Each structure stands twice: as structure tokens, then as C-alpha cells.
Amino acid sequence: MELNAHTPDLGTLLSQKSVYRVPRFQRDYSWKVEEVAELWSDLENCIVLEEGELKCSEYFIGTLVLVGKEGSSTYDIVDGQQRLTTITIMLRAIQEAFVTLGESGMANALYSNYIEGIDDEGKPFFKVVNVNHSPFFEVAIQHRVRGDDPLLPRNEAERNLLSAYKEALSKTNKSLVSTLMGSKQVYTKELHLQCLKSIRDQLTKYLKVIFIRVPKEEEAYTIFETLNARGLGLASVDLIKNTVFKDLSATHPEDKARREWTAVQEKLQDANANVSLKEFMRHWWISRYTYVSEDNLYKEFKKAKKSGLLTSQILLSEITSDVETYVNIIDPQFEKHKQVEDKRIFRSLMALRAFNVTQPRAFLLSLFNSYNRKLITKKYLVETLEFLESFNFQFVAICKKRSSGIEGAYSSSARKLFFAENKPAARRIILDFIEQLKQKSPSKSEFEIKFKGLKFSNDYTKDKKIIQYVFNKIEMYENGRGELVPEDLTLEHIMSQSSGLDTKYVSIGNLLPLSKELNEQAGDKPFVDKVAIYRSSSYKITQKFCDDYKDVGEWDKDKIIAREDELSALCFNKYWKIG
After folding, report:
1. Residue that wins the pLDDT comparison between 224 and 129
2. pLDDT, tens digit, for every residue of 378-398?
3. Nearest to 136 by CA among 7, 262, 322
């Protein structure tokens, strides 16, 4: 492999009539505001004030690896794209600051030298191009003319680009003078201009890189992997993407691999669940191949490819197919669950989401795929989901046990289910897995102790959502129609939470579901008056409470404890029964 290396400054590179392109296999722009601010601070620290003059100093920013023959009009960036993109953003911000100060000449010179060039045919071109974020990077960041209809960011990477630009632009304001020339320096436009010129020069004349060029495009993928496979900043999913794009290199008549990969990313980003591509890829992988950590996913991918078990085309096709199912699991939509059994599916998925458990997702992928393959009925799908809801309610939501210890069991059963060939085999795998989880479920005494510890007050809201879920679930069970409880369910303290310091006054035994309107009416009224108000409630739990305590004139700590005992027993033995 032929390598050519030298150490120019960034200005020399960007002033050439060349395009530096971030190719399709590269990861998305990922720098956050903190990283942009840190680089800007490093630039400022390189500039010192000596006898009234600002002087720059050399600063090494690492390696820039490019693919292309010497004198090429276009180079592909193999390593260094995050830094070069950020530097371009900073230069664009400085150019905008020159415009604001009325220095159009300096602004035009900076723009034409380092951001937008003109080729020998007189056609303009941007010097840094990112094919993964086109046209947003060009239109919203680099172009100096803003249209009436501004282009909005479509994904996290484009939001990062816009945030980086706004951060850099904020650094070019009047505060730059006090940063570089001292807090006591009186601001003038001339000093502001001097500071901007110093930052410009630091970027274009004093930033040094080791510039490495290789002539062949196919070598880019190998270099990319070599530079990043040893923990130098890239996740396994980026290395998998690199390999997929290397294997599926056709871009005419369209770049199908890029389109499908981007579609998977966008579906995950559109989901209201804050889930990353690497998280999905790992859950997908352990649902059908091997149990592996995120860090070792790429190694397992390479092994599977080498053995012939998997190809890049198969991987891309299957994640494209399965991402829809995964999104429906992590972000279920009510409008897609209109039938009675579908509503039960929706409620169980929403419960697992509320419990903030991710470990079951690999098994859920295989479970829904088995249903789609007609290996299990919808009824059996519903029953399995409701068991998982009950198990995770007891195990995770109430007893706070670490579900990471059983993730291996989830993925093992997921893989078995994925390879099930007929209905009896699928059913047997699911039954065996349910029995396995039952053996790990909490005891009644362990559950009841933890359940009685649930509390809510104005000062303690950590358990609020889980308590609302408990009342919601009981209400639906007692209604028998499976209808969702209205969203205005509030938590009423039967005995005012300000009655004393005892935690029992804020425990679940002292709480009732109530509409916001009735809650406000009840206020701090005496118990008998509150019960009269409670009778207007449509919640069956609250109506039952009124019936149970209709002859009671006073509510006290002993009754709170008795109600805790009753609720905890009912929840374990009836509403979330596992055994």
C-alpha cells in the first residue's frame, strides 16, 4: 500500500482547488457543543498578548488521511472528518462575524479562500463536502445566502452540525476581546476585528496536521478499519457500516446501500424512545446470532462473515426488515392497536417502556417475528407479553433487581425462537423460557416489603409514575373492558401529606386515584367530607374504597398500614400474578 505523508497547515490544504469529501462509509457528524467549545478554547489558548499584539502559535490537531492521487480535484477523507468539518464551521462563523462588523472584504476573502472555491470552468464548489449530510451542511451552514425557507435539520447529526455552528458563532461576539486581551480591556470594533483575525490566522496558518494520502479508493476502507478497530473512538456499528459499504460499493443508478442504511437510522431517530443505532444493532444481533457486548459486536460480525453465515447484503436486508418491528416494540403507537387484543399488546409494551427495561428487547424481536411467521397465535403473543409485563413489574419496577443478570437468558431464548421451524417448537421454547423466569421471580414477602415502600409527595416524585401505573392497571382489570384510564389521573393523599413526618402519610396505602377536579375539591377537608367527594369519582378503586370505609369516621396510620397490606397482597396474587 502506497502512503505519502507531510505536515502542511490547514490553510494550505483548504486554499487548493480541491474538494475534501466525507465519503458514504464514514460515521455521521457527532461532535457536541462541549467538544466544539473545547477546540475553540484550545485555539484561544494558543494566542498570547505581547506588547499589545496578539501572536499565534503552532498547534497540532492530529492526522488527516485522504484517498486520491496527487493533484486530484477530489479527496475522500478517511480519518479526520470530524475535525475538518468543525474547522470549516468555525471559519464560516468567523466569516459571518466579519460581515457583522462591516468588513465585507475580509469576509469575502476568507469565504473564497477556505470555504467555497471556483474551478477552472468558473463554477463554484464547496471545499468540504459531506455526502451523508447533503444538502443540509452546504445549504444551512456553508452557504452565505440564507433563503426565505431555511432548511431544517432532519436527524441528530444535522442537529449537531447546526449546534456547532451556533456555538462557534457565539464565540465570535464581543466577549472574544476580553478573552484574548484581558477582562479590563475596553471594547472597540478595531480590537474585536483584531481578535477575529487572530482566530482566523490560528485556524488557517498555525494548525498543523500529519497529512497522509493513499492513491486507491478501495484502500480507504482498509485504512479506516485499521485506524479505528483498536478503540480509537469508533463504535462497532461504524466499523460494520464501513464493511457493508465496502462490500456494497455500487452507487449507480443509486446508492442503495446508503439509502437503506440511512432509512434504518432515521426510523430509530424518529422513534420517541431515545434509542441509538448501536443499541438496535446489538439487540438485533443477540436475537439471532451470539450473545455479545457492543464493543465486541464488530468482531462477531467479521467471524460470521468469514464462516459464510452472514454477508453484508443479508445483514442490511434483515436490519431494514426488522427495524420496523423494533420501533413498534420500543415506541408503540395507540392508533395501530385498535382491536381488543391489540390494545392489550399496546399496554404491555408501554408498561415495559415505563419500567425502562431494555434487556427483553432481543426476545421481543424474535417473539413478534414468530407471530409474523404464524408460529404463534395473537392470543399466545398477548399472553406472553402480559407475563413479561408482570415479571418485570415485580422483578424490576418494584424489587429493583438488576435485569442485566438475565439478559443472557433473554437472548438465548430469542435465538432458539428465531430458529424454531414449527408451531410446537416455538411454543415449547416460550414455555421453557417462562418457567426459567418464574424461577427468578421475587418471593411474596420480598415483593410486599418493596411494594409498601412506594411513596409520593410534593417533595418526592420518584415513584409517581409507577404508582399511577399500578392504579391504572388495577382500574383496567376491575373494569373488565380493557379501556385506558383517563390521562387526568392524579394521586390524592387521603390523609394530608402535611399531617406529620411519618412516611406512611405519603405511602401508597394513603393514596387514591382521582381526577384533578375532585382532587382540588377534596383539598385538606376532614376524612368524612373527603369520602363524600370521592363518591363522585368514576374510578372503581375509589368507589370500592368508599364502600369499604363508609362507616369509618376517621382515617389514621393503622388503616394506612392495613390498606398497604391489602394492596400488596392483591397485586402479587391477582393483578400481577406470575406463578
Report:
1. 129
2. 999 999 999 999 999 999 999
3. 262
DSSP assigned state of 128: E
pLDDT at site 485: 53
Distance, CA of 35 to CA of 373 (rounded, Å): 47
pLDDT tens digits, one per residue of 262-294: 899 889 988 888 888 999 999 999 999 999 998
User: Which cell numbers in the block locate residue 107?
Assistant: 469576509
Q: Which candidate, 455, 529, 463, 465, places its Cα nearest to that of 497?
A: 455
* High-pLDDT (> 70) share of the chain, %: 92
Let me know: does 67 contact 217? Beta carbons within 8 Å. yes
Q: Which of 129, 26, 143, 144 is nearest to 73 (CA)?
A: 129
DSSP 8-state secondary structure symbol assigned to residue 27:
P
> pLDDT of 546-556, one tens digit each?
999 988 889 99
Q: Which helix H or strand E contains 269, and what residues bound it? A: helix 256-270
Please check the confidence at residue 231 and state whether its pLDDT lies above 50.
Answer: no
User: What's the whole-number average pLDDT of the chain?
Assistant: 89
The H or E element spanning position 322 is: helix 312-330
Match 451470539 to its residue by C-alpha cell.
290
Distance between start and end Cα atoms, the chain: 64
Closest by Cα among 297, 238, 280, 319 to 26: 238
In the three-class reduction of DSSP (H, G, I as helix; E, B as strand; rest coil), residue 399 is classed as coil
Structure letter (DSSP) for residue 3? -
Q: How far apart are alpha carbons 510 and 419 in whole angstroms? A: 50
Cell 471594547 appears where?
187
Cα separation, 438 vs 416, in Å, equals: 19
Given a contact cutoff of 8 angstroms between Cβ atoms, the answer to whether 579 and 442 are in contact is no
Question: CA-to-CA distance for 534 and 522, rounded, in angstroms?
Answer: 8
Q: Is residue 451 within 8 Å of residue 575, measured between CB atoms?
A: no
CA pair distance 387, 197, nearest whole angstrom: 66
> What does each C-alpha distance from 300 to 222, 290, 294, 303, 305 come to in angstroms?
18, 8, 10, 5, 9
Q: What are the b/e assignments for 21-45, b being 16+ CB within 10 Å?
A: bbbbbbbbbebeeebbeebbeebbe
Q: Is the peptide bond before 135 cis (omega within 30 degrees of 0)?
A: yes
Q: SS3 of 467, please?
A: helix
Out of 23-32, 145-154, 393-402, least confident range? 145-154
Contacts of 559 (CB under 8 A, 6+ apart): 549, 552
3-state secondary structure of 150: coil
For 203, the grid coordinates are: 485556524
Sign of the alpha-carbon torsion through 474, 480, 484, 486:
negative
Q: Are 485 and 473 in contact (CB under 8 A)?
A: no
Q: Which of helix, strand or coil describes residue 571? A: helix
Which of 78, 29, 70, 74 is closest to 223 using CA atoms?
78
DSSP element (H, E) containing 19: strand 19-22
86 grid coordinates = 468543525
Name the pLDDT band for 417 (thresholds 50, 70, 90): very high
Verify cis geometry, omega within 30 degrees of 0, for the bond prior to 253. yes
**Whole-number Å distance between alpha carbons of 245 and 22:** 14
Please give the torsion angle defined by the CA atoms of residues 411, 414, 415 and 420, in that order, rounded to the nearest 10 degrees: 160
